[in-house]
């Protein structure tokens, strides 16, 4: 290696300036290479020129976890030159409007390479964080209409095992390179891809800040059978407005669960673009969609009508649930600037009643019923007194989605994307009104069955790209499975869970809007269990950590709000015991704890509604042995005892 570019944050300021001056004025010839280290020195990116392209390698503690891999912005280049290089560093913090953390540290070292490709000036930015790296191009001198191809290889270890989302299905995986090499038809690989590289290294490959360059579309993956290399490649044509690409991101963690709380994608995203965010409030929401045709003990049947919605609002007001979400069929037809409201629904009365009860409303919009027109859609929803819009069937058009987010913000509306949305990683920093999205197999979506293993995989794969609207929290599991619900699973007794698992899932899945799908009566019948959901804050966490996780087997998540901790754990259909070490609690502090647990007789298939609740006291360093039934769960609400 002829040239090494490194930057240690414990260097003196004077020495840093000397280094910067040297590298700003240096020009690397074609046979020279570069290296940039993370602030901790554990990760490093090595760059070298290979003919008319660059190749990078990613090393962890000196060992290659991504071997030499091509990265480029133009294909078929005849002349390529590295014109200069420079480095910089950042060590700051910022406060998200809402999220898994109340404060995020943004610390990285950055290598910038000035390039020239067939006379076109480009700049490659390489940012090295302690737990990941990002690559981005800036195009300075361009030819109008020239095709741009952001091409990036990921030459992974031969033993790597891959997982990725599968739309409204269970995530794909495990896949290995031998399987992919022999496959007659390759599976569709989409972001984020999770890589089990070894027992102590886990990677996730995705992108961030698609907001900056929506014309690139969502990152696309392929597998090159010839050299057994994973490839991402997106193309567009140069326009005057195109100056930068999205970030290509590789996350690196020692534990698979830490990928879910990794803040590198948020740090790479464009900072908040909304000046006044006081109206953006994360929270819990009731939802009518899964309750249609639910018959209560007092003889009432829920449907799409005014009376049903008033009952939801009453319960939300009583329990402190911030939102009520009205889903499809509240309108029957859409034309330009007009929605035909369902016959039995007085939406103005519902809106006024909700306002009086201090409950905010979110309203669904289905483009299949006609095009109202996005130019006036959001302001119309605002005029109805809505606080948010759930947008269905947006499609994969990134520019369209980006515009919808910005227009909804102009009307002070939260936006929840459903039905195969764009995985807009980092957008909740840029536009925090983008509160959640259904980039997953939501509970009983399309009335498919939903298994404990499916949930755990999505919690460790789909959730990496950002907040998920998964609709956990069903309590009437026996009724749902027996076919008593209009929106229940197509096959009776195919939805496996326990009521404690349902409670734990609402915490495990990070979202700015936790949508709980059951009837008020079902929650009232288990009010002591519902307490966990009721007390649990949403989206306003000071700290989040995954305590235990293994793909398809179990996951345990802890989140802190103020001095209180909420912990949720779930297990696959084998069931088991998890040792939950409370070493994150304060020293010399005693805490009250409420345990929400499966019983010895609980089973996700045969006895899903059996649970027990007990109370106790805990201190820092104690280990709770959480026993989880097959397909079961465990939850804890921990709060300090007042002096």
Terminal-residue CA separation: 61 Å
Low-confidence stretches: 1-31
Strands side by side in the biggest sheet = 5-6-7-8-16-13-12-10-11
Average pLDDT, rounded to a whole number, is 92
The second-level CATH architecture of the domain at 13-268 is Distorted Sandwich
Query: What fraction, in percent, of the residue positions are helical?
Result: 10-25%
Number of strands: 33
Gross morphology: globular
Cα-based radius of gyration, to the nearest Å: 26 Å
- Share of β-strand residues: 35-45%
What's the total helix number?
13
CATH fold group of the domain at 13-268: Beta-galactosidase, Chain A, domain 5
Give the CATH level 1 class of the domain at 13-268. Answer: Mainly Beta
Judged by helices, strands and strand pairing, the structural class is alpha+beta
- Biggest sheet layout: 9 strands, antiparallel
Fold and architecture overview:
The chain is of the alpha+beta class and 643 residues long. Among the domains are: 13-268, Beta-galactosidase, Chain A, domain 5 (Distorted Sandwich), CATH 2.70.98.10; 441-465 and 475-511 and 519-643, TIM Barrel (Alpha-Beta Barrel). The longest helix is centred in the middle third of the chain and has 14 residues, at 306-319. Residues 1-31 have low confidence and may be disordered.
